[in-house]
């Protein structure tokens, strides 16, 4: 145990490890705030769909050689969030079909473009496309290569996300629990649904290099599901979800540094363990009654 503590103290002397921890905790905070709303509104599919879209946009940025891939990934993901909401409300194309069209299409096209570019001898593409795609989908150690600029960008975006959530907390609460009643009282529910989708898109783009595009939805959903097993009020669920997400993120980063496992998979594994623990606590509380 003392050896592990000494190792951690040694690792945290390096700036890139501290940067990884800061970014990881900020992403965990932002994702857990909106995760509760997504679960209760049954918008979980949006997180999964947008993560696929972000991968497709990343592939386009890589193939075209754009240095700052955020210039493509961020607007494309936000536009897709709007399209998912609009298309999902279409009577001809239901929500699940809209997700299948946009997300799976973006995933397939992105992978195809990366392979075509590699086969045509594009120097911007690495020789091992499969490894690059795997690390992008499931996360890698790229979180340990963050620069100070990346950290500040993440801090700025996190401040925006938290501020939006706090300022519009009452409206988000109303739209989450009873959208029809909220509309009747004059709340512009469509606008707030759009706001939630855009904020989720921003979180997904920030988290893409952290946990991998396929695991982002797990980072958003699992803490909320765990908290809802024990707590019932909206505020309690959010607070518990934030705490769970922060603990799992910190644990995942530390374990991945010490053991060498992928950061994203390790964090999601910690979230799964916590979910089972809270499920056991929920069953014990029900039996106690």
Structure overview:
This protein is mainly alpha-helical. It contains 13 helices and no strands. The chain has helices at 2-11, 15-40, 44-64, 70-88, 95-119, 129-138, 148-167, 169-177, 179-184, 189-211, 216-230, 234-259, 263-288. α2 packs across α11 and α12 (234-259) crosses α13. The longest helix is centred in the first third of the chain and has 26 residues, at 15-40. It is globular.
The count of strands amounts to 0
Low-pLDDT sequence parts? none
Note the total helix count: 13
Largest sheet: none
Approximate strand percentage:
under 5%
Helical coverage, percent range:
over 70%
Give a nutshell description of this structure:
The protein has helices at 2-11, 15-40, 44-64, 70-88, 95-119, 129-138, 148-167, 169-177, 179-184, 189-211, 216-230, 234-259, 263-288.
Keywords:
globular, 289 residues, 13 helices, mainly alpha, 82% helix
Write the layout of secondary structure elements.
Elements: H1 2-11, H2 15-40, H3 44-64, H4 70-88, H5 95-119, H6 129-138, H7 148-167, H8 169-177, H9 179-184, H10 189-211, H11 216-230, H12 234-259, H13 263-288
Helix pairs in contact: 2-7, 2-10, 2-11, 2-12, 3-4, 3-5, 3-10, 3-11, 4-5, 4-10, 7-10, 11-12, 11-13, 12-13
